[in-house]
Amino acid sequence: MADAALSEEPKFCLSEVLDSFKTCLTENKEIIIDQYVAGWRGLTRFMNSLGTIFSFISKDAVDKIQIMVKHRNDVNGPRYVTVQSMVKYELDNGLVDLTKRSSFPESGCRTLLRLHRALRWLELFLERLRTSAEDSKTSVMCSEAYNESLAQFHPWLIRKAAGMAFCALPGRSTFFEVMNVGTPEQVVVMLGDALPLISEVYQLTEDLYLKHKLLDIP
Ligand SMILES: CCCCCCCCCCCCC/C=C/[C@@H](O)[C@H](COP(=O)(O)O)NC(=O)CCCCCCCCCCCCCCC
User: Fold this and answer.
1) Which is the closest atom of ligand 1 to the Cα of 175?
2) The model scores a pTM over 0.90
């Protein structure tokens, strides 16, 4: 049953997913939320295709995606077209819990911050994959990237659970195959194209959040 349902899903192609992060940047360097969220949705599909052990990670990402979609579909959706317009709207209207979680536990600014921190993990992980040797271990690359980024924001229990999930990651060659991009050489080229854009999206968000003192939203 589950297999039949899975096979009906459109075939995953990582380059299409990473394209969402490319196309989320406008000419004047604003970040389009619909595209950003579409990128994350694709990544969670990829993660689900790796097995159920990763579902607690993708579940949290899916929850956050849904919160962002809810904002976009709300009457104030037009205020959530770009990350920049969202930050301005929510701050101007006092819609963000800046010091402790209370009235606005699902603000767009807070929710996007969690995805933004995860984007740094993605950037570090993909860069390791891009430059890795054939016999490199994905579990090691993944946990190094995690320890340098997201881990500092997670409590012990989540760090442990994440560490266990990383050990279940398939090896580098299976991983490259599941990406459905082509030969390992083509994967490396594709990653080299996508990474500068992912870095730019990350840095623009980081600068914006820093400017508005939003990097520690609880
Ligand atoms: C492919 C390997 C996948 C490894 C994913 C590495 C990330 C590990 C993150 C572990 C998160 C565990 C779930 C819970 C997290 C939340 O507590 C925590 C805080 O939220 P809260 O403040 O609302 O409580 N949430 C977060 O930090 C957001 C985490 C979002 C994780 C998204 C990860 C998606 C990864 C997509 C993988 C695609 C890989 C593609 C590579 C070719």
Assistant:
1) 42
2) yes
